[in-house]
Amino acid sequence: MGVYSYLLQTIKNKGAGFLFLLDPDKTDIKQLKAIVPQIERGGADAILIGGSTYDRDSLEGYLREIKLSTDLPVILFPGNHLQVSKNADAVLFLSLLSGRNPLYLVGEQVRGAPLIKKYGIEPIPCGYILVDGGCPTSVAYISNTLPIPRDKINIAKFHALTAQYFGMKFVYLEAGSGAEVPVPDEMISSVKSYIDIPIIVGGGLRSASLAREKVKAGADFVVIGNAFEGKTKIEEMVAEFAKNIHLK
Fold this sequence. Notes:
Blueprint: H1 3-14, E1 17-22, H2 32-42, E2 46-49, H3 56-69, E3 74-76, E4 90-96, H4 102-119, E5 122-130, H5 138-143, H6 153-165, E6 170-174, H7 185-194, E7 199-202, H8 208-217, E8 221-224, H9 235-245
Parallel strand pairs: 1-2, 1-8, 2-3, 3-4, 4-5, 5-6, 6-7, 7-8
């Protein structure tokens, strides 16, 4: 089964899925042997690898270490074409639809596409939509784009529908790493009722109860990362999130 099919099956079987975000900039490779098995035992459904500044050379060994420690799918969440690696199972093939910077709409994608083909990893086309999380975020700074204001529900809906009409497999509503507040429930529920493809929600989800709110609002997957940074004994925390995300 491919990763995309596995993700759809997760939604069907569990109601919603839990994507655990590991950032090579913030989690040292030496910690992975202890952390990654806890992620799997706790009940996460897949591991996302994403961050702002790491490159392919540092990524290869990082991914190899993860793959030695888990059978969960390992999915790249790249910020540019240098963050594409042959050691991943799949890649979110993102287009930053909420911005108007051509580099992140299509430029980096053109650079990354031949590498994805060469390495034989599975691309999962995804419309990436930044939403104001209450503070400046790394992704907004690096991409030189403005997030959608939290109260502009229609703007989010129209961008999400564009992703669907482009043939993308997911919409990712992102408040950004370190966001003070997550994507609003009203925006999630409005987008959910407007489109026919699954929704990923991330950014600012520091508690299991918040993650549950987003699932009830309509998120098909939630991405959790910051809540676990600096922790080593995380299995119980992962299990608490999983219990609140898997509603079936």
